[in-house]
Amino acid sequence: MTGSVVGLIGFVLTSLTENIYIIYVTYGLIAGTSQSLIYTGVLVSVGYYFDKGRSIATGMVVNGCGVAMLALPPIMQQCVSSFGIHGTFRLIGAAFFQCAVFGALMRPNNVEMNRKMENKTKNTKELYDNQCVRLGKSVRNSLSTLGSVEFFLFCLSTFCWNVSFNISYLYFPKYFKTNGVSKLDVSYLISATGIGNICGRYLIGLAASDRKIDSRLLFFGQFSLIGIFTLFLPFLKSFTIQFVYMTAFGLYTGGVWILQTVILVELISLSNLASGFGIVMFCGGFGQLAVPLLAGNVLYQTESY
């Protein structure tokens, strides 16, 4: 709910300025923070609520992103044509504010409510002492768990993934335009990733729910496949083949968001999910921060997308 309010403020402020340095703050920092708050809050909540079928539940939640990726590029293009970029930012801010409604509906589950009721019945001093002891143990256990090599490698992979994924999304439109694809067709190509995302998130959710299938192997396998496909992108000149590639890109990248929660529970346990997920998202965000600097430098040196 906090993220929805912050998002509304960020996008409205962005719509009121044309100064790129101010937009760095309003769009990049304020609106970006709101997305982190909403995304992290939702996925952590799903991880707590669903013990059985956690991957399927997460898949259903993140499928909303796939639907948005399918539907929004042409809609946003039309909004910009009809209302201008400033009006479009206000519409996006209004859409973000709707998340407050859904956040209000995400009530604490029975386990959490029962714990709160038990705490209220205990003596205040005894409760305070016990909580201090539990907090100290919890912090030590969390630091020990989060400091494992496996967790570090997972954070590193998330950083690398966000660098490559966001470079792709940042430069896909320009890349296709330089290869003679029209603006409308570019929006269709971006929408194709939504088709793949919807299918991929649903299928990966089902696959990850099977205990015989290693979720970490799925995680690694998807990266490998899309990396190999992307190596051949400069040779794909036909619009039809480019559309197939973008669909595959969505298919093999969409399931990553589901597997993050599942793998984290396996690596650091459910009790450390919130703190662990926050650290992973921080690494991902740092990867996104590196995107413009890295990609811009490569583009400047090679003068080629």
TrEMBL record:
- SUPFAM superfamilies hit by this protein: MFS general substrate transporter
Q: Which domain of life is it from?
A: Eukaryota
Provide this UniProt record's keywords sorted from A to Z.
Membrane, Transmembrane, Transmembrane helix
What does the record give under GO molecular function?
monocarboxylic acid transmembrane transporter activity
Q: Where are the transmembrane segments?
A: 21-50, 56-76, 88-106, 151-172, 184-204, 216-236, 243-265, 277-300
User: Record's InterPro entries?
Assistant: MFS (IPR011701), MFS_trans_sf (IPR036259), Proton-linked_MCT (IPR050327)
Identify the Gene3D superfamilies for this entry: MFS general substrate transporter like domains (1.20.1250.20)
Q: Which PANTHER family match?
A: GEM-1, MONOCARBOXYLATE TRANSPORTER
Entry protein name: MFS transporter, MCP family, solute carrier family 16 (Monocarboxylic acid transporters), member 12
Biological source species: Mytilus galloprovincialis
